[in-house]
Design brief:
Elements: H1 8-11, H2 34-53, H3 61-81, H4 86-100, H5 102-119, H6 132-144, H7 153-157, E1 160-163, E2 169-171, H8 172-182, H9 187-195, H10 201-210, H11 212-237, H12 248-265, E3 273-274, E4 280-281, H13 313-330, H14 336-347, H15 351-358, H16 362-371
Antiparallel strand pairs: 1-2, 3-4
C-alpha cells in the first residue's frame, strides 16, 4: 500500500524558468488558464463534499470523485511543467488522499517536503510578496487544520481498515464511535447507543483479527505516511522561522490507526518508506522507521503520539504540545493536558519573563537574577 501513485522525481525536477521553480500561475486570469481551472475543480469538489457531509441527497459522490481526478491531473501537470507551488502541492495532496488514502498522505508529505528543501527561495507563492510566507503556510496548514478539522481529516477517518462480518468496511470513524460507547459506564445509556447501531468494540476487534492481513497492511501504510508527514513537518520548521503550519492533527490520526492495528494484530513489520524521488530507504530507528513497532513504542494504546527525532528545541516543544493535545482529546477531565500546554508556553518565554511569572516576589526574583549573573544588585 506504500507504492506511490505519483512520479515524485518528475514533480520535483527543476524547470527551465525561474531558477528551476518556473513561473507564478496566478498571474493568468483567463478562464481557461491552468490555475483557474484547478481552483475551479477544487472548489467544486469541496462544495459538493460539504453538501454530502450535510446529508444533501443531490450531492453525487461520482461527481465529487471526477472533480478530484481533475484536480490531480491539472496540479500534476502544473508542478511537472510550469511551477513549483506550495498551494498547488497542497491541493494535489487533497486529491491524492481522497483517491489513495494513506498512501496519498505519504506522497503529499514527500512532495511538499521536496519543494521546501529544493525550491524554497524561488517557489510560489513568492516570498517577495508582502504576505508570501503566510500565503505558503495557509494551504499547507489547512490540510491538517488547527483548532478545527483540516481538509484531510474527514477522508482519512473514512479510510477502510478491515472488512466486517457483513462485508462492509470498518473505518476509523466507526471504530472510534465503538470505543466511545465501550467507555460509557451507565448501562442504560450504553444500551441505547448500541441499539442505535453502534457496534460493540469487542465485535469490531474480532472482525479485525479475522481480516488481519488487510489491517496489518493498513497499519504499515499509516507508518509510511506518518514518517513522510513528520519529515515534511520538520522540513518546514526552519524556513518558516518557528511559525510552520501545524501538521499535528494528521500525525495524531495516523497514530490512532497504527495503535488500532497494533492492538488487534500485534507488532507490525518494519515498513520501507519511499523518500525523495521515490527511492526506498530502510528505517533506521528514526521517527516512523523500523523501530517504532519493535519496542520503540510509537503506537501506544489509544493512538498516543510517540517519540520522533528531535533536532531542535522547537521540535521538542512541539512534541510536548502534541502529547497535550492527545490528553485533551482523550482525557478532557484530566489536568495533564493543561499542565503540558503551560509547560510548552513557558518553554518559549525569555528567562526574565519566566522568572517574573514563577517568582512573583520582587526581592526573590532579583536575588535569582543576581545568582545567575544576569542582573547586578544596585549600589
Amino acid at each position: 500500500m506504500s507504492e506511490l501513485t505519483i512520479d515524485l522525481a518528475a514533480l520535483l525536477a527543476p524547470l527551465a524558468e525561474g531558477d528551476g521553480a518556473g513561473v507564478d500561475m496566478r498571474t493568468d486570469f483567463t478562464p481557461k488558464a491552468p490555475y483557474q481551472l484547478l481552483r475551479g475543480a477544487r472548489g467544486e469538489a469541496r462544495a459538493l463534499e460539504r453538501l454530502l457531509d450535510g446529508g444533501d441527497p443531490n450531492a453525487d459522490p461520482v461527481a465529487i470523485a471526477g472533480h478530484w481526478r481533475d484536480v490531480k491531473k491539472i496540479a500534476t501537470n502544473i508542478l511537472e511543467t510550469k511551477s513549483k507551488d506550495f498551494e498547488i502541492a497542497a491541493w494535489l495532496t487533497e486529491a491524492l488522499v481522497r483517491q489513495d488514502g494513506l498512501t496519498g498522505v505519504q506522497a503529499g508529505g514527500l512532495l511538499i517536503k521536496g519543494i521546501a528543501e529544493t525550491f524554497w527561495d524561488k517557489a510560489f507563492p513568492s516570498l517577495e510578496e508582502p504576505e508570501g510566507l503566510e500565503d505558503r503556510a495557509s494551504p499547507v496548514g489547512g490540510l491538517a487544520g488547527e483548532g478545527a478539522d483540516g481538509t484531510l481529516m474527514q477522508p482519512l477517518r473514512r479510510t477502510p481498515m478491515f472488512k466486517r462480518g457483513d462485508g462492509s468496511m470498518c473505518d476509523l470513524f466507526l471504530y472510534k464511535r465503538a470505543e466511545e460507547v465501550a467507555a460509557i459506564v451507565d448501562a442504560e445509556r450504553k444500551a441505547k447507543r448500541l441499539k442505535e447501531g453502534v457496534p460493540e468494540l469487542e465485535v469490531l476487534q474480532r472482525e479485525g483479527r479475522a481480516d488481519s492481513a488487510f489491517l496489518k497492511s493498513v497499519g504499515l501504510a499509516a507508518m509510511a505516511a506518518r514518517e513522510a508527514w513528520v519529515a515534511m513537518d520538520e522540513a518546514l520548521t526552519d524556513p518558516f522561522k518557528g511559525n510552520a503550519p501545524s501538521a499535528r492533527n494528521v500525525t495524531m490520526l495516523l497514530d490512532e490507526v497504527i495503535g488500532i492495528a497494533v492492538k488487534i494484530v500485534g507488532p507490525l513489520q518494519a515498513a520501507t518508506v519511499a523518500t525523495e524521488e521515490g527511492e526506498a530507504a530502510a528505517g533506521d530507528g528514526d521517527a516512523g522507521g523500523a523501530s517504532m513497532m519493535d519496542g520503540g513504542g510509537m503506537a501506544m494504546p489509544g493512538g498516543a503520539p510517540g517519540p520522533r527525532a528531535m533536532r531542535t528545541r522547537e521540535d521538542a516543544i512541539k512534541q510536548i504540545e502534541e502529547i497535550a493535545a492527545w490528553f485533551k482529546k482523550t482525557e478532557p477531565h484530566s489536568p495533564v493536558a493543561y499542565t503540558l500546554e503551560d509547560t510548552a508556553r513557558r518553554a518559549r518565554l525569555p528567562l526574565d519573563e519566566l522568572l517574573a511569572e514563577v517568582l512573583t516576589e520582587g526581592d526573590a526574583r532579583k536575588a535569582m537574577l543576581v545568582r545567575l549573573g544576569i542582573h547586578r544588585p544596585e549600589g
